[in-house]
Amino acid sequence: MGLEDVVDAVEHVESLLADEETGPVQDSLSWQQTDADVQLGKACAMLGTCRQLRSGTNNYVSIVELSFNAIERSFQFYLVDQTAAESSDFRKHEQVFEDIESRGVFSDTGVPARIDAFRSEHRARIYYDIDRPGRDLAVGMHELAEEVHSYAVEFADAHSRCNCKERHETKS
């Protein structure tokens, strides 16, 4: 594979986006009509992928990264669903954490700020491979993401729109 192959690959992806020919939407994301439900569906999909990775591989970097993403999507779902915010309002990661913290969704526990502090310090280090996450951190991050997601869904009374439970039951 040479540079021309890379250029061809970039041009292919650019043309798919320019022509809006990105192919069929992922099944689990095909039914959502609202901005909030799209964020919820993305969080559910990321958590589902974490479950698959945990049962089949030791890809701890992906589990940690997807867990961070699922937490942020779960917070964003809540904010878009319960306020006048839109997903496009959250251009910076820290905005989501600051906004969810200010709304008291997690009472006075400081959970969003603590996760944001952890994200700020460790996510980039893991992403750029300064830190190498191990199994226990990957499992812990996934469990944290599952708990945050479940709590946000419960707080928004959105069980009927979350497909995580359906995935758990199908898998069992």
UniProtKB/TrEMBL annotation:
Residues 2-164 form the DUF8154 domain. It comes from the Archaea. Pfam families: DUF8154. This is DUF8154 domain-containing protein.
